[in-house]
Amino acid sequence: MNPTEIFEAIEAIARAPFDAGEFPFAFAEATDNAKATISKLRNGTTNKSDLPGGVLVARKFHYAPALRGMTDVTLDALRGSKRTATAKPAILIATDGETVAAEHRASGDTLHCRFDEIGDHFGFFLPAAGKERYRAVEENPIDVKATGKLARLYDALVKANPDWATDARRHEMNQLMMRLIFCLFAEDVGIFPYNQFSRLVFSHAGNKGEEAREAILAAFRAMNLPKDRRAGLPAWTAELEYVNGGLFASGIDAPVFDPVAFRYLKDAAALNWREINPDIFGSMIQSVADPKQRAELGMHYTSVPNIMKVIGPLFLDDLDAEIEKAWDRPNGLRRALSRMAGMRVFDPACGSGNFLVVSYRELRARETRILQRIAELEGSTQVQMWSAIPITNFYGIELDDFAAETAKLALFISEYQANARFGEVFGQMPATLPLKEAARITCGNALRLNWDIVCPPPGEGEQVFIAGNPPFLGDNSRTDEQNADMEHVLAGTLDSYKRIDFVSCWMFKAANYTRGRSARSALVATNSICQGQSVGALWPHILVDGIEIGFAHTSFKWRNNASANAAVICVIVGLRNESRERKRLFSGDLGAVVSTINAYLLDGPNLFIHAEARSIFGLPYMEYGNKPTDDGNLILSEVEKDDLLSEYPEASRFVKKFMGSDEVVNGKVRYCLWVPDQDADEAAAIPALRARFDRVAAFRAASKAAQTRPAAAFPHRFRQAQNWARSHAILVPSVSSERRPYLPVERVGADVIPSNLNQVLYDAPDWCLALIASRLHLVWIATVCGKLKSDFRYSNTMGWNTFPVPHFTQDQLEQLSASARRIMKTRWSHYPATIAELYDPERMPDDLRQAHKENDDLLESMYIGRPFRNDTERLEKLFKLYAARMKQEAAA
DNA sequence: GATCCGACAGCTG
DNA sequence: CAGCTGTCGGATC
User: Fold this and answer.
1) Whether A611 contacts A533, CB under 8 Å
2) Would you say the C-beta of A528 is within 7 Å of strand B?
């Protein structure tokens, strides 16, 4: 159940007559417990409560009925209950049917309200449904309630009017929803006389909405016409205001309301729309037209703090500094005002308009403050009495029609709210109606549209700021159409673009728009575009012809107030034309002024590390492990191996130890079937193996990967059986935790088959291990390789093959080998501790730490004659060596 | 033939 | 649920 559904279920309880015995089961149902759980609760088998009439569901809630007027006493009893202590319910709830007293145990927050109001506080009860507390909901439940009502209305309308669900009519349907929302908002905030729209429509719509369509159509048509031009419309529409502003200008139609849809419309009208928050409301409401998004409910909307991370350094911080500097000088303040009037904000992936709404609100707030200050300084009332920041300075592109319509509406609502605040301060507010022009939202594909046409380039005295959070999609999750969009944008400029993220297209177009103009841009992106292969593929084509990174936020975890957050790590990159202004690099909440920001978002030289097939410093060949592509059928757990061998001892010659990252890092044990081609028939004669091979063949044959399908012909073998050791192998897990102070690396015997989750040095000397286990190497890998979210990802081509080393003498190599063996020996002395345990930053044994320290000191003295002071110094040296090597190669 | 990536995925506490 | 940490195999070079 999503929050909307939980709200509706709790509200239904609030409306129904109270029954002390029935309430806890209804509450359990409303908070997402399975039917079976509830019936077990009813017959008492799982009820753990120790209070009379109480019901306790472990980790969810503990309820007890209260005597009239005694809810607080009962809540106290719940707090003191032994069973509360053992079963750890999230929520305690006591009620007498009149009032409710409840507590959220983790925070100690309490709730006291009338029983029939519990629907309004449903956010408080979400923890009883196993959901985290949902701050946005508790602060502003109206947004979720409105979303729920509108979603029901939308569904009911589509059901009653199947033709309105077609692509051809979707835009009209979306417009209808926006018009209705506008009217409901307008009549609640005083744009229309209170309740005017619903009063008129509902009194002419018939009892069950038989005439609702005609009434709504008449009302909409009237609002598009000045009052003196409404001949031909029903007389009752004369009362309605002239709205216009484009909202009612085009294609007025309405679907038929059946009794169900009509009831939902009435429910929606009953909400207090004054309270809605356009920041969040816009995002939530997007889910109305898209049932898939309802479960996610705002998963991808950008939170206000994250928007501020973008627009702060992009333009607000500079503006604030300017205002601050001119604070005592009316002329300076007027200059700031006139600059603000020329500032345009353009979000080329605007969704429901979050960035535009927040930008608009922030600019209007500053304008109001400046006007107040000017009035104060000049002691007169002769200040400009109206805002010079037009809503038409806000531009957006959005693919989804419903979201685009929402963005327009959200901006309209923000404009109204900003004007109302202006009115509070200056005692006068302009006439709201008829609406003036609206924000410039274009519904279309940002990767196909010419941005210069959507948002004309800045003229004299103007600045354009591109800001937004475009979609992230890796190469495995794009549609054919999206791939075609990428080709359209990037082919011809980028040599290889297919493996970089979709969001790169926006970054690229933003750079092109910005270049050579009075413009700047800043976009949220997945951190992968500033790591690994993407860096060399993308950034050399952005940071050219005068474009530089003016500010950036390094990786941060995506978070907003939605109940489910997207699992992704983001960066923000601000682009501008080369400038002497400061550059700012933010890590978390800390910002630093730096001299250059490179494509890795580091304060360092503007350098792109490219993948290499072999080490450019002459290190041994490291290669990718063996990839099964077997749906698990060539892999055996310890138990499976034992079962197999006890039944078919002759299979033992086909079974080998199999190690991936997990096996190296966490000491897990797995086996694989490793059958030489000439023994394929013999192996297939063993029924258990034959069954496994058949499953492999079926799985591969059904694959959509071109390389996998032919491998169905040799199911006894890995799809890619690359190599194996003659005497020993050094394994480097390809993914491992970012918390460790050193990269995991392990030396194994020839009996082990390394999986593709390791990079492998076969039969290589021990000094290689000393390099990989060094701090220098970790710093290099962390910088130039990709990441999995924020964890280290080891690549042979980009990490090992580019790793700069000085020329080692034979003697030095022997010293390093000895050092590597000391590290291994120290690890063995802690047997059976795993690498994960040994390298836990909190619990790393002192002797192992010491062995690594000695290894680092030894290796580093071979670079510069002494240990490095810190990682910055390490990286500087490595970059220098890399650059020198590249120069040498270019010369050769 | 070889390998980088995942608006993640699976496990644990 | 929320934090932690690396599977698996497609797609691309």
Assistant:
1) yes
2) yes
Domain residue limits at A534: 469-607
Is a pLDDT exceeding 60 seen at residue A485? yes
Task: With respect to residue A705, please indicate whether it lies within any of the assigned structural domains.
Answer: yes
- A707: Cβ under 7 Å from strand B? yes
Instruction: State the nearest residue by CA to the C1' of C8.
Output: A629
Nucleotide closest to residue A499 (CA–C1'): C12
Q: Does one domain contain both A739 and A885? A: yes
Q: Give the closest nucleotide to A500 (alpha carbon vs C1').
A: B5
The answer to whether residue A385 is domain-embedded is: no
Same structural domain, A759 and A705: no
Q: How far apart are CA A307 and CA A288, in angstroms?
A: 23
A389 located within any domain: no
Nucleotide nearest to A132 in CA–C1' terms: C1
- What value does the mean pLDDT take over residues A564-575? 89
Q: A154 with A29, same domain?
A: no
Q: Residue A482 CB closer than 7 angstroms to strand B?
A: no
Same domain for A742 and A874?
yes
pTM: 0.85
Q: How do residues A451-475 score in pLDDT, each as one tens digit?
A: 999 999 999 999 999 999 999 999 8
Model pLDDT for residues A850-862, shown as the tens digit of each residue: 999 999 999 999 9
Question: For residues A324 and A377, is the Cβ–Cβ distance under 8 A?
Answer: no
How far is CA A624 from its chain centroid?
31
Show which positions of strand C are touched by protein (CB under 7 A): 1-2, 4-13
Protein A838 CA to nucleic acid C11 C1', in Å?
37
Which residue, A813, A888, A828, is CA-closest to A858? A813
Which has the higher per-residue pLDDT, A672 or A133?
A672
- Residue A203 β-bridge partners: none
Q: Which nucleotide is nearest to A801 (CA to C1')?
A: B3
How much is the average pLDDT of A481-489? 95
Element (H, E) at A404: helix A401-426
- Nearest of A795, A743, A699 to residue A499 by alpha carbon: A795
Mean pLDDT score, A500-524:
97
Tell whether the torsion through CA atoms of A557, A870, A849 and A615 is positive or negative.
Answer: positive
The encoded tokens of residue A482 equal: 């999206």
Distance CA A703, CA A882 (A): 41
HEC secondary structure over A217-271:
HHHHHHHCCCHHHCCCCCHHHHHCCCCCCCCCCCCCCCCCCCHHHHHHHHHHHHC
Q: Which two tokens stand for residue A650?
A: 């002759």
Q: How far apart are CA A644 and CA A632, in angstroms?
A: 15
> Which of A133, A153, A186 lies at the terminal end of a domain, its last residue?
A133
When the pLDDT of each residue in chain A is averaged and rounded to a whole number, the result is: 90
pLDDT for A666 beyond 80: yes
A2: pLDDT confidence band, cut at 50, 70 and 90? low
Q: Are A864 and A733 within one domain?
A: yes
The pair of structure tokens assigned to A387 is 């805002």
Answer yes or no: do A501 and A538 share one domain: yes
- Which residue, of A663, A698, A721, is where some domain finishes? A721
Q: How confident is the model at residue A140 (pLDDT cuts 50, 70, 90)?
A: low
Q: Is the peptide bond before A832 cis (omega within 30 degrees of 0)?
A: yes
Total of domains in chain A: 5
Query: A298 CA, B6 C1': separation in Å?
Result: 21
Angstrom distance (rounded) from CA A51 to CA A74: 9
CB atoms within 10 A of CB A169: 16
Instruction: Record the tokens describing residue A111, joined without a space.
Output: 């709730």
Q: Is position A58 within any domain?
A: yes
The H or E element containing residue A47 is: none
Bases of chain B within 7 A of a CB of the protein:
1-9
Helix (H) or strand (E) holding A135: helix A135-139
Asked if A231 contacts A225 with a C-beta cutoff of 8 angstroms, the reply is no
pLDDT of A609-657, one tens digit each?
999 999 999 999 999 999 999 999 999 999 999 999 999 999 999 999 9
